[in-house]
Design brief:
Elements (H helix, E strand, L loop, with lengths): L17 H11 L11 H12 L4 H11 L3 H10 L12 E6 L2 H5 L2 H11 L12 E6 L11 E3 L2 E4 L3 H12 L7 E2 L19 H4 L24
Parallel strand pairs: 1-2, 4-5
Antiparallel strand pairs: 1-3, 3-4
Length: about 230
C-alpha cells in the first residue's frame, strides 16, 4: 500500500453541521459509552459526506468528540483508501477500477479520457469540478470496465461513455448509473440464458415421489447373545 498523507493545504477550522451531528449522535447510541471510539469510521465517513474530504481539523474534531488520541483517528483515516485526504471535485469524484478484469476490458481507455479531460490522476481539475484516481477492485468484475463516480457504479463503460459522463456532470446533470448495455444488474447481456423454463417456478416440474428406491424397511438387528 502506498503512503497516504494529509493534504499540504488545510482549512483553518472545521465544524460539524447540525445534520452531521445528529447522525453522529445516532451512531454513538449504537455503542456502549466506554466503547464510543468504535464509531470512528462512521464519523469519518459522515465528515467526508459533509465536506467531500477529510481534513486535519476534522480529524481533530472527531478525536475530541470520541475522547481518543488524535493520532489514532489519523491512523484510521490514512489506512482506509475510502477516505479522501485532499479536496475532490465539486461535481464528480471518479474512481476507475484498474484491476485485471477491468483492465482486460478497457479500463485503460477510460483512464486516458480522464487524464485528457481532467488532468493527472489524484489532482484536482483546474476548475475544481473533477478529481479522478485509479483504484483496486470494486467488486463489479462481471460488468467490467467500470468506475465508481461519487456514490454510484457506472458499468460496462466505453471511452465514449466516460467522455459523455464527464460532459453531463460538468453541465450539472445526473447521468444514468448502472450498466451501459442491455443487462439488469449483473445478469447476462440480453437477459437470462439458463433456468428459464417456467415449469421450474410454477411447481409443475416437480415429480411426486410415493416411494423412494430401496426404501424397504431395514431388518431388525439381531439380539446380542446373552
Amino acid at each position: 500500500m502506498s503512503v497516504r498523507r494529509l493534504a499540504k493545504i488545510q482549512p483553518a477550522s472545521f465544524a460539524f453541521s447540525s445534520e452531521t451531528m445528529d447522525k453522529a449522535n445516532w451512531w454513538l447510541t449504537k455503542y456502549p459509552a466506554e466503547r464510543k471510539q468504535s464509531a470512528v469510521i462512521p464519523l469519518l465517513w459522515l465528515v467526508q459526506k459533509q465536506e467531500g474530504w477529510v481534513s486535519e481539523p476534522a480529524i481533530r474534531a472527531i478525536a475530541e468528540l470520541l475522547g481518543m488520541a488524535y493520532i489514532r483517528v489519523l491512523e484510521v483515516a490514512t489506512f482506509y483508501t475510502m477516505f479522501m485526504l485532499e479536496p475532490v471535485g465539486s461535481a464528480a469524484l471518479i474512481q476507475v477500477c484498474g484491476t485485471t478484469p477491468c483492465m482486460l476490458r478497457g479500463s485503460g481507455e477510460l483512464m486516458k479520457v480522464c487524464k485528457s479531460r481532467i488532468g493527472p490522476k489524484q489532482t484536482l481539475s483546474a476548475d475544481g469540478k473533477f478529481y479522478w484516481e485509479e483504484v483496486e477492485c470494486l467488486g463489479a468484475c462481471s460488468n467490467a470496465p467500470m468506475a465508481m463516480i461519487n456514490d454510484y457504479y457506472f458499468e460496462d463503460l466505453t471511452a465514449a461513455d466516460m467522455d459523455q459522463i464527464i460532459d453531463d456532470f460538468a453541465a450539472g446533470k445526473s447521468p444514468e448509473r448502472g450498466p451501459r448495455v442491455d443487462r439488469v444488474n449483473s445478469a447476462p447481456e440480453g437477459g437470462a440464458t439458463v433456468l428459464t423454463d417456467p415449469k421450474l417456478y410454477d411447481g409443475s416440474a416437480a415429480v411426486k415421489i410415493t416411494k423412494l428406491p430401496n426404501s424397504d424397511p431395514a431388518p431388525a438387528p439381531e439380539k446380542a447373545p446373552a
